[in-house]
């Protein structure tokens, strides 16, 4: 039976944990856009957001307290509420019979939880021992629709990646920080051109230095051998999704003053020869990929696919390519892929889980 409707053709009982956040709200929009078959919808958030009313296709739905909720009867639950909440509550909803699709980092390294990009490794959802499926980090997600088919064609051995990550990847707090600092810089614009230190930027709450008119190559805390948490995620998740446990990955993750859209500069070394022309042919037919002369986050914002360009030979290695990728970190990087995973699920598996 194909995914996309339940065995009775009446839709699924769906929940969203973190429904009041940026990604949770986008999940609601994408479920509607893609006509995902929903028989009933329940929305959950933290206790402080419980009681809010959200619109779903003309119907008001009261947001429930996720920690106090009874998840019985739910078929699919999307989680976008952070790692702490996911570690605590995802097993609870799964035990109640739902298949959980989690957007946090909580389960990405668990060998019993598949880490899935819909276009790259959909067969990974065949086994769900914990009833949980993990969504990759939004930075990894932008790269995978392009790297997956190239890896299949020529075998990637090594990746050197520098990222250009939008502020919305840090949630509403990140966007607000950029806005407040940009306003301050605007007020001091006469001195900014000569001496940025003369601008009285508001204190940085989320990053170690101001982000307005700046870039920050220290994106989250250093956790291993000088690499940040974000850079280690990029390495570990790439290995899992590409099924390449020995893949060499060196990443530098950089936060830039862009609202939406993550970009990556990628140098890939392959086992076998692959020319830029061959890569272009492969990616032209790859699902979820659009070839662009100049991929950039403005063009990627609000779009489903990732945009790939600047494909050229890397002359520093024997079998190497350089390329540039941009993708919407909120859409494909989080909400869309979660919905696409749900569309891949066999309705019979969902039915068995809920019973």
Tell me the β content.
Answer: 15-25%
How many domains make up the coordinates? 2
Order of helices and strands: EHEEEEEHEEHEHHEEHEEHEHEEHH
**CATH architecture call of the largest domain:** 2-Layer Sandwich
Question: How would you sum up the major sheet?
Answer: 6 strands, parallel
Can you count the helices? 10
The amount of helix comes to: 25-40%
Word description of this protein:
With 355 residues, the protein is α/β, with parallel strands linked by helices. It has 2 domains: 12-135 and 335-354, Rossmann fold, CATH 3.40.50.720; 140-329, Dihydrodipicolinate Reductase, domain 2 (2-Layer Sandwich). The chain contains 10 helices and 16 strands. The chain has helices spanning 22-33, 83-95, 138-154, 171-187, 189-192, 229-241, 276-284, 297-300, 331-344, 347-354, and strands spanning 12-17, 38-45, 53-56, 59-62, 64-65, 76-79, 99-102, 132-134, 156-164, 222-224, 227-228, 248-252, 262-270, 289-291, 306-313, 320-327. The chain has a 6-stranded parallel β-sheet, sandwiched between helices. It has a 6-stranded mixed β-sheet with strand order 12-9-13-16-15-14. The longest helix has 17 residues, at 138-154. It is globular, with a radius of gyration of 21 Å. The mean pLDDT is 92.
Describe how the helices and strands are arranged.
Blueprint lengths: L11 E6 L4 H12 L4 E8 L7 E4 L2 E4 L1 E2 L10 E4 L3 H13 L3 E4 L29 E3 L3 H17 L1 E9 L6 H17 L1 H4 L29 E3 L2 E2 H13 L6 E5 L9 E9 L5 H9 L4 E3 L5 H4 L5 E8 L6 E8 L3 H14 L2 H8 L1
């Amino acid at each position: 039976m194909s995914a996309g409707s339940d065995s009775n053709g009446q839709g699924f009982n769906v929940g969203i944990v973190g429904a009041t956040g940026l990604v949770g709200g986008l999940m609601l929009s994408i479920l509607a856009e893609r006509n995902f078959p929903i028989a009933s919808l329940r929305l959950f958030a933290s206790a402080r957001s419980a009681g809010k009313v959200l619109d779903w296709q003309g119907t008001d739905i009261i947001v429930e307290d996720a920690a106090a909720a009874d998840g019985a009867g739910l078929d699919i639950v999307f989680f976008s509420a952070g790692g702490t909440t996911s570690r605590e509550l995802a097993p609870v909803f799964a035990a109640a019979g739902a298949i959980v699709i989690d957007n946090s980092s909580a389960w990405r390294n668990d060998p019993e939880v598949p880490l899935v990009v819909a276009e790259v490794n959909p067969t990974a959802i065949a086994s769900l021992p914990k009833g949980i499926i993990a969504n990759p980090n939004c930075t990894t997600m932008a790269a995978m629709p392009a790297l997956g088919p190239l890896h299949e064609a020529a075998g990637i051995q090594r990746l050197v990646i520098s990222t250009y990550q939008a502020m919305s990847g840090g949630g509403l707090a990140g966007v607000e920080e950029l806005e407040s600092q940009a306003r301050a810089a605007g007020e001091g614009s006469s001195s900014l051109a000569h001496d940025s230190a003369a601008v009285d930027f508001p204190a940085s709450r989320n990053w170690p230095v101001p982000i307005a008119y700046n870039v920050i190559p220290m994106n989250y805390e250093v956790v291993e051998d000088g690499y940040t948490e974000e850079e280690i995620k990029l390495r570990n998740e790439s290995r899992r999704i590409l099924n390449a446990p020995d893949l060499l990955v060196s990443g530098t993750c950089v936060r830039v003053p862009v609202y939406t859209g993550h970009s990556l500069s990628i140098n890939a070394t392959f086992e076998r020869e692959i020319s830029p022309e061959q890569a272009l042919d492969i990616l032209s037919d790859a699902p979820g990929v659009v070839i662009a002369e100049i991929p950039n986050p403005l063009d990627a914002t609000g779009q489903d696919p990732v945009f790939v360009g600047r494909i050229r030979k890397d002359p520093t290695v024997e079998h190497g390519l350089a390329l540039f990728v941009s993708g919407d970190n909120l859409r494909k990087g989080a909400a869309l892929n979660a919905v696409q995973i749900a569309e891949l699920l066999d309705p019979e598996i969902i039915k068995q889980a809920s019973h």
